Amino acid sequence: MDYLPLPGTPVEEIDTPAIIVDLDIAEANIEAMSTFASQNGVSLRPHMKTGKSPFWALKQIEAGAIGVCAAKVGEAEMLAEGGVNEILITNQIVGQTKIRRLFGVASRANVTVAVDSHENVAELSEAAQAFGRELGVILEVETGMKRAGVEPGEAATTLAKAVDRAPGLRFDGVMGYEGGAVYTENFDLRKRQALESVDNLLRAADDIEASGLEVKIISAGGTGTYDITGKVDRITELQCGSYLFMDAKYLQVFGDHPHPFRPALTVSGTVTSRPAPGRAIADPGQKAISIDQGVPEVISIEGAIVQGLSEEHCVMKTEGPADNLKIGDKISFLPTHSDTTIAQHAYYFCVRDGVLETVVEIAGRGRFT
Ligand SMILES: Cc1ncc(COP(=O)(O)O)c(C=O)c1O
Q1: What whole-number distance in Å separates Cα of residue 221 and Cα of residue 204?
Q2: 124 CA to middle of ligand 1, Å?
Q3: The whole model's pTM is what?
Q4: For 303, which of 137, 143, 339, 369 is 20 to 30 Å away at the CA?
Q5: Distance from the Cα of residue 12 to its chain's centroid
Q6: Is the peptide bond before 321 cis (omega within 30 degrees of 0)?
Q7: What is the best residue among 52, 142, 145, 177 to mutate for testing ligand 1's pocket, by most ligand atoms within 8 Å of CB?
Q8: Domain that includes residue 327, residue range
Q9: Of 201, 217, 246, which closes a domain?
């Protein structure tokens, strides 16, 4: 049976390790990005690789988002099951099994998918005809990150035309992600890198339009570039995700650059051992807090410096106030990377004013197929 404390439980009594979300802060983050988008005349389609649950998707749609992004068919299935009816999969869905599942989602929600190859266009078109359902398709364009994506120029235009000609597919536009820029700490450099990437995307859109096709969607943007990409006139929608909770990595990237987002998600832990002076052990290990972007920060007490995480232990050096930590004390960690931390947990424990309001299932955990 899962551990499910009742609403009204004080946050200090929630057993650890647990993901604690401050609802007031998360809701303010949602509101802030929605306000930014509407003030800048750009639509918002937040990426659910972060929130991984219909709860956050629906909250964001309620606050003005036009729909959400998903990274995988499994995420899209989870979102559609939870009542989200407008989903852009920002990834290539290949192979018969996944494509069959994709059309399963498409029977319940309006789904658009990103392609970057002729092979994928051919198999999606075949399936669209077999299922008798039109599928919206956008091109993922390689804009500088050197990940997936068709090269802008002739290759992109030829692929867009192939989508347009393919029975059962509807060409909707282009997307690109400035992944090479989002974590650049110097704002001027981040801006230059992001605009270079956006230029590549717009160049692809121009060429496709010159060939006679309409490009309805031009989608891009991460949290690190929201106020750069989101101010480019021709970008039609932003696909940022991390701003929902803000993690230590993005706080570090923004530094003193002004932004309205505050950290809403922490992982709570308990001190389980004080084996030697100056050393404390707590119960969130790597299975509770991801360290792909670095170790978490202790934010509830000064002087506890995380030195490393093994599977189930967090080892901290203590000094000053943290020297007084006792076995059984609760502490709060700010993860460096929210997305990969969330993916390891079953529940969000959502609190307001220090009291549990609701427990939300992380329905997207493990949904990476
Ligand atoms: C395709 C795509 N779009 C958007 C994002 C934006 O995410 P974030 O707001 O975390 O930068 C990501 C992040 O990985 C992504 O892969």
Answers
A1: 16
A2: 24
A3: 0.97
A4: 339
A5: 28
A6: no
A7: 177
A8: 11-18+261-361
A9: 246
97: phi then psi, degrees, rounded to nearest 5: -65, -50
Task: Check whether residue 232 and residue 266 sit in a common domain.
Answer: no
CA of 182 from ligand 1 middle (Å) equals 9
Residues counted in the chain: 369
Q: Give me the residues paired with residue 305 across strands.
A: 317
Question: Which amino acid would we find at residue 225?
Answer: T
In a domain, 366, yes or no: no
CATH number at residue 351: 2.40.37.20
Residue of the CA atom closest to atom 15 of ligand 1: 177
CATH of the domain at 145: 3.20.20.10
Residue with token string 């969330």: 342
Residue 146: phi and psi, rounded to 5, are: 60, 45
Query: Ligand 1: residues whose CB is within 6 Å?
Result: 47, 49, 90, 177, 182, 222-224, 239-242
Residues 262 and 246: their CA atoms lie apart, in Å, by 6
